[in-house]
Amino acid sequence: EPEVTQTPSHQVTQMGQEVILRCVPISNHLYFYWYRQILGQKVEFLVSFYNNEISEKSEIFDDQFSVERPDGSNFTLKIRSTKLEDSAMYFCASSETGREGYTFGSGTRLTVV
Amino acid sequence: GEDVEQSLFLSVREGDSSVINCTYTDSSSTYLYWYKQEPGAGLQLLTYIFSNMDMKQDQRLTVLLNKKDKHLSLRIADTQTGDSAIYFCAEHYGNNRLAFGKGNQVVVIP
Question: Measured between beta carbons, which residues in chain A are less than 8 angstroms from residue B22?
Answer without folding.
Answer: none
